TrEMBL record:
Gene Ontology MF term list: DNA binding; DNA-binding transcription factor activity
Name of protein: HTH marR-type domain-containing protein
Domain HTH marR-type stretches: 1-145
UniProt KW keywords: DNA-binding, Transcription, Transcription regulation
One Pfam family per UniProt: MarR
Stored InterPro entries: HTH-type_Bedaq_tolerance, HTH_MarR-typ, Tscrpt_reg_MarR-type_CS, WH-like_DNA-bd_sf, WH_DNA-bd_sf
Amino acid sequence: MASQEAGSETQTDALVLAENLRATLGRFVRRVKTQANTPTTSQSETLSLLDRAGPLSVAELAGRRNVRHQSMRLVAGQLESEGLISKMPNPVDGRSRLLSITDKGRAQLSRAREARTLQIANVIEERLSDKDRRTLEAAIRVIERLC
């Protein structure tokens, strides 16, 4: 019975840790994006996905972003009209087109990432002691093991 209680306690601890991590990281990311004036939008998330994954169809983008095909088509249309993505023939399926990030889109994405990195660096400089910075570095390594 004691080992069953210990297992249940470990599960509860993991659930509490998971919820605290989710909530804290979410608040942190939202705050950084707001303070860096780079709020998350469906457009920026789509650009980021295309930058990481390479060319994708509208259907693939919709699936990866967990949005409706029609919604993704509208976002893609906006990005294309701004010159941030381009369409190309799909070599596997001649009926569909692949979307890819353009140099202009990559530059916009890079500026947003740099602004957020600078915002984080400023907060680290302002609020963390050397000891806290070492703790943060260790915490990052632990979080990376969760990925």
